[in-house]
Amino acid sequence: MYFLLGNLSFLDMWLASFATPKMIRDFLSDKKIISFGGCMFQIFLFHFSGGAEMVLLVSMAYDRYVAICKPLHYMTMMSRHTCIKLVLISWVIGFLHSISQVAFTLNLPYCGPNEVDSFFCDLPLVIKLACMDTYVLGILMISDSGLISVSSFLLVMISYIAILLNVRKHAAGGVAKALSTCSAHIMVVTLFFGPCIFIYLWPFSRFSVDKLLSVFYTIFTPLLNPLIYTLRNEEMKTALKKLRNQVVTFH
Question: Can you give the pTM of this predicted structure?
Fold first, then answer.
């Protein structure tokens, strides 16, 4: 579990950093300019870290399923070797997803004015700058991003439904216990997948709230994840209580 959490934190660091420094710089500058290469690099990093994190969240849901439904087999089924393979799979899928998205936009003809109405180069806005009909390209982009988002979300939901059904059969009051154990992961999944699915399944330009959602899932969600997991972890709670008692005793 902690190995997967460590990788989630690493991906969150990339997700929160790919556009934030440039955004802060633009706030303090009159000229908000980014090179074409820099724009493509932002698209690549965003879709790589986002795609990899989606698949990693599925792996974490599977980890919770094994821990709750097959506790005696946990150390065998979730060995270090298995965890490494799950992380590598998430990175490979994130890389392939990101490369496919960049390939859509790299060779498009851009005539200008090349102005992106957002704080970073997001794919739906960038392809609108092309001097050609991008309807088919938009469908391909939505299909690619929508497929990985919706499929990952459904797999996570299926794993939790399986957990609840399994616990309900074998333990009285087990459903509440299972929900308590999985609540942190469910919160993270909802915060991450909700804005992504909303943005990529509806036309980008029709919702003024899209910028707010973009800020939410690229900055706030990665920052909230460590806090959510920390506050839901009993070991961390115990450590914080000990620290608080030591401070009170010292004073």
Answer: 0.81
Reading the block at residue 70, the tokens are: 């097959």
CA distances from residue 48 to 55, 86, 94, 119, 206 in whole angstroms, order as listed = 11, 16, 5, 18, 26
- Structure-block tokens of residue 123: 């794919």
> In this structure, what are the phi and psi dihedrals at residue 110, rounded to the nearest 5 degrees?
-115, 120
Residues 176-194: tens digit of each pLDDT: 666 666 677 777 777 777 7
Q: How far apart are CA 75 and CA 195, in angstroms?
A: 35
Return the sign of the alpha-carbon dihedral for residues 85, 90, 92, 93: positive
Q: Give dist(CA 59, CA 217) in Å, integer.
A: 20
Give long-range contacts, CB 8 A cutoff, 24+ apart: 154-163.
155/58, 155/61, 156/57, 156/58, 156/61, 156/189, 156/193, 159/58, 159/61, 159/62, 159/64, 159/65, 160/61, 160/64, 160/65, 160/186, 162/65, 162/69, 163/64, 163/65, 163/68, 163/69
